[in-house]
């Protein structure tokens, strides 16, 4: 069906002739073409809500960088917004929520979102699928409930997310209610993405690393597990939990196909802990792309040798930084594809 379905085969553990590659945040500010499209929208949120523009930047990395999958251009924060908590994206600073979650009433006031509340994403997926014309699969995504809760309570990014963690310690019962509502919203939303054509789903748990092991199991993995149970029967699921090296053995038990790794994790150790039933994805340090081409090539080779060519999807250990050189990014992709 696809001209190139290598990433789907790798996710399912089928044999591949070379290692597939895509990069987190591949649609973004490293591409002048992205900046040109973004300039046509009033601000980031208007951009995300415009299906034509969102579809356009979704395809750009496929055309320009030659990646083996597109990822729908959107943001994880569309779910809090659809639930009734609007945000602003402040230039060079990040997200900001005017109202945050503090009480039982705040949680009761939240709406359980369904795909209809996020119709702009659904339309963007349909347009992107049409433009892709089966060249490569399309990845849909959502934030993990804990990471979304962290923003909804904290109100912005944070190094420690101490306000969100305070909520876990002071009001654990409410935290579970909130996480459950986010989980139900996310399942509805991801099912809508799949119905619109998303071929795989990735969950981003960007703030896994601020929790200790026990809290991670109770407040994050429990809900990720519910989402995997609902989605994995439909399409392959990837769970990327940044800095969650302490939970790899637990993640190995999830109903998911692929586990995304950040750059702090040694590939051989990850394989031993996770076993052979899952595909691994990752994990070069994005800052490695500031090095020269010789070093980039050596890293690509080392990484692929360490993971092995089967049951593996090459990627970075987190998203691309905006000041990375697009030519070096493309060089890295070409190195992996040439191995
Ligand atoms: O990966 C892709 O190419 C698809 C698009 C995508 C975006 N955000 C677009 C975006 C994805 C998958 C995300 C997920 C996301 N959003 C996460 C999880 C992944 C991660 O990075 O840990 C998180 C935590 C967010 C929340 C968010 N969105 C923050 C903290 C910021 C500001 C910081 C920044 O990078 O600017 C955003 C903004 C954002 N989301 C941009 C893009 C391309 C930059 C906005 C711009 O163009 O100015």
Name some characteristics of this structure:
single chain; 339 residues; alpha/beta; TIM Barrel; seven-stranded parallel β-sheet; 15 helices; 9 strands; 48% helix; 12% strand; binds coproporphyrinogen III
Structure description:
With 339 residues, this protein is α/β, with parallel strands linked by helices. The protein has a single domain (6-338), classed as TIM Barrel, CATH 3.20.20.210. The protein is 48% helix and 12% strand. Helix 8 (145-154) packs across helix 10 (172-196), helix 9 (162-170) crosses helix 10 (172-196) and helix 10 runs parallel beside helix 11. The protein is globular, with a radius of gyration of 19 Å. The mean pLDDT is 98. Coproporphyrinogen III (CP3) binds at residues 24-29, 38, 44, 71, 73, 75-77, 89, 94-95, 141, 157, 204, 206, 319.
The CATH architecture term is Alpha-Beta Barrel
What's the arrangement of strands in the largest beta sheet?
1-4-5-6-7-8-9
CATH topology: TIM Barrel
| CATH C-level | Alpha Beta
Radius of gyration, in angstroms, nearest whole number: 19 Å
Q: List all distinct small molecules, including ions and cofactors, that are bound in this structure.
A: coproporphyrinogen III
Low-confidence stretches: none
SS-based class: alpha/beta
- How much of the sequence lies in strands comes to 5-15%
Mean pLDDT metric = 98
List the helices and strands and how they pair.
Layout: H1 6-12, H2 32-38, H3 44-48, H4 51-65, E1 70-71, H5 78-83, E2 87-90, E3 94-97, H6 104-109, H7 119-132, E4 138-143, H8 145-154, H9 162-170, H10 172-196, E5 200-205, H11 213-231, E6 237-241, H12 248-251, E7 258-260, H13 267-274, E8 279-284, H14 293-307, E9 312-316, H15 326-338
Parallel strand pairs: 1-4, 4-5, 5-6, 6-7, 7-8, 8-9
Antiparallel strand pairs: 2-3
Helix pairs in contact: 2-4, 4-7, 8-9, 8-10, 9-10, 10-11, 14-15
The structure holds coproporphyrinogen III.
């Amino acid at each position: 069906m696809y001209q190139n379905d290598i990433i789907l085969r790798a996710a399912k553990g089928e044999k591949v002739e070379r290692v597939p590659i895509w990069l987190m945040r591949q649609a973004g500010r490293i591409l002048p073409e992205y900046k040109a499209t973004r300039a046509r929208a009033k601000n980031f949120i208007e951009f995300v809500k415009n299906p034509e523009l969102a579809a356009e930047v979704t395809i750009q990395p496929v055309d320009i960088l030659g990646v083996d999958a597109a990822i729908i251009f959107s943001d994880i924060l569309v779910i809090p917004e659809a639930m009734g908590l609007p945000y602003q994206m402040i230039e060079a600073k990040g997200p900001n929520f005017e109202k945050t979650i503090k009480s039982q009433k705040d949680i009761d006031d939240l709406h359980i979102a369904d795909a209809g509340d996020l119709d702009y994403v659904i339309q963007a997926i349909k347009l992107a699928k049409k433009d892709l014309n089966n060249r490569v699969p399309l990845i849909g995504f959502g934030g993990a409930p804990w990471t979304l809760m962290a923003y909804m309570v904290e109100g912005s990014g944070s190094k420690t997310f101490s306000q969100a963690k305070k909520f876990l310690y002071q009001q654990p019962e409410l935290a579970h209610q909130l996480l459950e509502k986010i989980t139900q919203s996310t399942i509805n939303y991801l099912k809508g993405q799949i119905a619109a054509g998303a071929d795989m789903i990735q969950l981003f748990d960007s703030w896994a690393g601020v929790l200790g092991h026990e809290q991670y199991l109770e407040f994050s993995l429990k809900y990720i597990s519910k989402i995997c149970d609902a989605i994995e029967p439909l399409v392959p699921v990837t769970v990327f939990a940044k800095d969650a090296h302490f939970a790899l053995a637990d993640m190995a038990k999830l109903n998911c196909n692929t586990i995304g790794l950040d750059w702090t994790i040694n590939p051989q150790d990850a394989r031993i802990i996770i076993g052979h039933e899952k595909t691994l994805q990752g994990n070069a340090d994005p800052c490695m792309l500031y090095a020269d081409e010789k070093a980039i090539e050596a890293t690509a080779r080392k990484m692929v040798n360490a993971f092995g060519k089967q049951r593996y999807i090459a990627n970075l250990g987190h998203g691309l930084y905006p000041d990375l050189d697009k030519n070096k990014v493309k060089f890295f992709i070409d190195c992996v594809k040439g191995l």
